[in-house]
What does this fold into?
Amino acid sequence: MLLLYSTQPSPRLMYIADTLLHDLSGIEVVYTSNMEEFKSFDGAKINYSHHQVAEDEFNIIPASEILFEQQLCEQKINLAENSAYKVLFPSEGSDFSFDIFAASFFLLSRYEEYLPHQKDEYGRFAHNESLAFKASFLKQPVIDYWLYDLQKTLQARFPYLLFALKKFRFIPTYDIDIAYSYLHKGITRSAGGVVRSLLKGDMASIKERINVIARRKDDPFDVYEWLYALHLRYGLSPYYFFPVAKSTGEFDKNIDPAADEMQELIRYHATGYNVGIHPSWQSGDDESLLLQEIKTLEDIIGRKVVHSRQHYIRVTLPDTYRRLIDLGIHNEFSMGYGSINGFRASIASPFYWYDLLREEKTSLLVYPFCFMDANAFYEEKLTPSQAFNEIRYYHDTIKKVNGTMISIWHNNFFGSDKTFEGWKEVYELFLEEVVYWDL
It folds into this structure.
């Protein structure tokens, strides 16, 4: 047990201390504002205040008022270099060189996303608006680094304090935005595809479409058996996210969920894997559609849907997460950017979302991702070889802190479409040369 003293143990302070010390370190934390209780306590204790209370305390001096405020306002962020990484809110005279509680809360709560900011072309919080991008630590899970150093420092002061052992995990996830390139799209969409190819003079695509529909050739996006074999070989437990919008649009191009073949594909994956909802773009504009889509997926798989990832990573806080909680989602996989790879919340460990406007820790467990194939290909313009180096970097970085590495892939990147030539091999090589040695 660890006793934490503060003149006012606020909901924000208790949330971030619980996250760092209990959820991620396995320590029971008790809070007090009673000085005499703190002084007389015989055990590990942290004084989070400006004044010394006990001689045997570990003192972290608040360098910001963010944890004691009850409103949102612009924060003055002081940055400093600390060995191999940057820190926020340096704290002179403290037993720790910076205010890890205030710094971690600012990043983990996504405080900056509630403040006025410039949105990107899709109406999302733009990555270049983030402190992590501006201060060049987007590619580092700095909260994991900070926590590791705090644990070492605390254990040096209190040798009997034992922390839970974390173990590196790799969780592959897949967004099945377009399950098939040609199959099961119906006469109208298939005819439209032929017309578009004719207008482009792309006769090869027309020929391929005809051969696939006639079952003389495999669909370019049908890689499901190949993925199944990979998971079996490496003992992986993936998550699949399926869009089940009833109507298509500019950003929603999924196969009709009423089609028998689509339902069979979803049930096939739900039998042995985790299956979640991939809310359509439309559901971000019409709230009633999300309930409809979750119900559709539940009817197909025959159980409650508790996993989710937003299509196009379309997240607006706090509205998106509140809606998901209200509809029974427990695990959310959208914490990352749809425009660049890196650590949006500056962490490589799952954490519970804090609702800043309601000032409460919620039941929504957030699983942050660090790498998405579409970011590497469309936004960062990486070659397959460069993408392999990038995903290996994230693996090595996260493994050093025994974090959880979550990657996002799309089935079309693994198929026979020449646009994505070499990407299938990147994934195979990554699993064979990197992940294999973690097993």
In short: The longest strand covers residues 169-175.
